[in-house]
Request: fold
Amino acid sequence: MPAPPDLDEETRHEREQLLREIASKERRRRRRQRHPPTVWSGLGVFGMVGWLITVPTLIGIAVALWVNSIYPGTWTLGFFFLGLAIGCINAWLWVERERRKVYEDDDEDDDME
Reply:
């Protein structure tokens, strides 16, 4: 929908950007209606994030126990938090990548129109 000619360039650009954003949100809404999220997909995401955090944390504890056997001390808590931090960063990166895929799908839909 072209902007009226009496609008200046900046206002016209803002209007076009707003229209693109509205169209993008509408495409996502329609996609959710066609493929509604299920309990299983929610559990899958929840489980994936859980494993992304749990595995590095357990590896950190295992490394701490191994280091404790070589160099006696209190390494467990430090390696526990290191593994937890790595796991949280890993989960955050995965969620961001999945979020980016949703927006890239919107861009591909734009290209098809």
User: Anything to note?
Assistant: Residues 38-112 form one domain. The chain has three helices and no strands.
